[in-house]
Amino acid sequence: MESDEKQIRRLVSDWMDAIRVGDVDHVLSLMTDDVVFLTPGRPPMRKVDFAAGARAQAAGQAPKFDGRSEIEEIVLAGGWAFMRSRLEVIATPPDGGAQTKRSGYTLTVLKKQDGRWLLARDANLLA
Fold it and tell me: How far apart are CA 74 and CA 64, in angstroms?
């Protein structure tokens, strides 16, 4: 059986791969139903908001995203885990215009449900 840390690292890898190819349903399956995303200067984003943006992206109506995540720390606490990462995101507009690159740190809270680690909360400081 795969260790919790390896499962979490695989979740991050799967997430990045699915975002890259626009597999919205797979990305949504990697998060809890009550997930909350916190980003600078914006109100908290819920799963329904994330799904709408991801579906627009997959349909070519929003920027395409690529990037990489470098996990710097994982702390396991029973059915919860905390992860600190350095994230780099590159957004390409649907019209093929100039790319935007942002990077910074994230703090992610994961929850184990039905034997699977899922993203539950995510705060990023991308600038």
Answer: 28
pLDDT digits (tens, 9 = 90+) for 11-35: 999 999 998 888 999 999 999 999 9
Classify 10 in phi/psi space as left (phi over 0), alpha (psi -120 to 50) or beta.
alpha
Selection from 82, 77, 103, 68 nearest residue 8 by Cα: 82
pLDDT digits (tens, 9 = 90+) for 70-105: 999 999 999 999 999 999 999 988 888 899 999 999
C-alpha 81/C-alpha 72 separation (Å) is: 13
What's this model's pTM, rounded to 2 decimal places?
0.90
